[in-house]
Design brief:
Shape: globular
Oligomer: single chain
Number of helices: 7
Number of strands: 7
Number of domains: 1
Bound molecules: adenosine monophosphate
């Protein structure tokens, strides 16, 4: 596993603790020999994690749709080792997926939620088998994981879906999960995907 994709907030108005933990995550990504694939902007957590990863030696790969690329270039444009501009948001997600071997989800808003939801569904349907790990800074994802449990409890998804994502409490735990990740078996029949009545 080499390239780690990060989905996270583009907001600059968060409590400082979200940024400092993201910087720690960026540092550990680099120090553990991973490259960073991310949304190609200096905004919010994206900016802070990419800067920290770069300073600690990671290769930085930005992937951004045309429309945002002019608006959101990283304030330090030397940060990129690779910079991919895509036609639109959908093409961007596909490119990020193609370039990465695993996914870290830091706290984020609707953009982050949209991106990770697609990756979870891809895994449920067997299109990929990469690790998906959330970093629970300030317990940000407690409510979402309660909702995930409800989805499974009420049989909107199979129990096995709960193995497709992991909630880590610290950046160190995120790295441990990525390094020890054992891919799930891909679904072979519809019964492996949907709950039977
Ligand atoms: P959000 O969680 O709503 O702040 O959205 C952040 C996520 O959506 C990131 O993982 C990015 O891939 C994408 N995104 C949203 N806004 C931007 C932006 N201005 N520049 C680059 N990527 C963005």
């Amino acid at each position: 596993m080499k390239n780690i994709c990060v989905f996270c907030s583009a907001s600059n108005g968060l409590d400082e603790s979200y940024y400092t933990e993201a910087e720690k995550m960026g540092e550990l990504i680099a120090k553990n020999g991973f490259n960073l694939v991310y949304g190609g902007s200096s905004l919010g957590i994206m900016g802070r994690i990419s800067k920290a990863a770069k300073e600690n030696g990671a290769k930085i790969i930005g992937v951004i749709p045309e429309k945002l690329s002019e608006l959101c270039k990283h304030s330090d444009s030397n940060i990129y080792d690779e910079y991919h501009v895509t036609k639109d948001m959908r093409e961007r997600k596909a490119k990020m997926d193609e370039l990465s071997d695993g996914l870290i989800v830091l706290p984020g808003g609707f953009g982050t939620l949209e991106e990770v939801s697609e990756m979870i569904v891809q895994k449920i349907l067997g299109y990929n088998n990469k690790p998906i790990v959330f970093l629970n800074t300030n317990h940000f994802y407690d409510n979402l994981f309660e909702f995930f449990e409800q989805i499974i409890l009420e049989k909107f998804a199979q129990t096995r879906a709960s193995y497709y994502y992991y909630l880590a409490q610290t950046p160190e735990e995120v790295i441990g999960y990525l390094k020890n990740y054992i891919p799930n078996e891909l679904p072979k029949t519809l019964d492996d995907i949907y709950v039977k009545n």
